[in-house]
Design brief:
Blueprint: E1 3-9, H1 21-35, E2 41-47, H2 51-63, E3 70-76, E4 78-81, E5 87-90, E6 107-109, H3 110-118, E7 124-129, E8 132-135, H4 148-154, E9 159-163, H5 182-192, E10 202-204, H6 205-219, E11 226-229, H7 231-234, E12 237-240, H8 246-260, E13 263-264, E14 269-270, H9 274-284, H10 288-298, H11 300-323
Helix pairs in contact: 1-5, 2-3, 5-6, 6-11, 8-9, 8-10
Amino acid sequence: MEKIALLVGVSVCDMGLPPLRKARTNVEVLKRALQGTSSGFEVQTLNDPNLLDMMEAIEHLFRHREKTDQVLFFFSGYGIKDVDGQLYFAAPHTALDDRGNLIRARTMPIRFLHNVMDTSPAERQVIMFDCCFRQTGGSPTEGETLMEDTYNHLIGDRRVILSATTATQHLPEPDSLDAWSYTRYWAEGAATGAADTDCDGSLTVKELHYYAQRKLQVAAPDQRPQFYGSEDTANQLVLQVPSQIPTVQYRQFLEKMAETSEIDTTEFRILSGRNTLNTFRQHLGLSPQDAAEIEDQVLRPFQEHQQRIQLYQELLSKLTERAE
């Protein structure tokens, strides 16, 4: 049995859309998480590849497999839902024609991905999308379009789909917002062992997804990450967690406390249970500095939530001034 991952990030395209600088970051952090743990994945990355290279790499990933192999495919970039209702993934040279229509020959259609997945011998397939979904012909006043139908067509008995968002959006988050993505939280849960909520020393796809989902429910409640498809595949082991390491034990303890404790949203620290935390830290032999660093990481979503509120208040204030 082999475990193979292909991570693709497309940060730019010729459609006049804002660059997605986090696409490259997502690829790099996920690569480090998979290679820096006992996941056993062989990892290949593609950043801003041309369309042909991207499609050939995806086809090779799925078609050149054995029945017992585990495949992980990750895409971060723009997903374009066109007027035909179909989803297309953008490459760097994806563009509109002189009438404003999507040039589909410069995109990767979802049906291509569906075909190579269906014809793959691999019986365990994990697909991750951390995309900014757009709809052609949409205006800023139109509501979002849900993606559930698209995902439901992709699922199968041996496949699970993880998605950072479930709807089209008109603009990505501004670069001035220092916020983590679904992928970065997913990778954090793997790299630190924090997603191992039952503390059994192993992590599954489902545990990693729910860890990232919980973090974003605090940091960005409107994103609503979801998973679709095979429960069996979602519950497959991804990697082992060194659960006896003090930093992992303290992190897991803090994660549970953060779900129920009162949080100081000014200094971003856990208010209740400080004596219990100090006693546990001393028992594990951690320094106050190491413990404080872990607490900062655990409470990062609360900081991001406050950043979003402040940024949107500033934007609203500017728009109000212009209207006056």
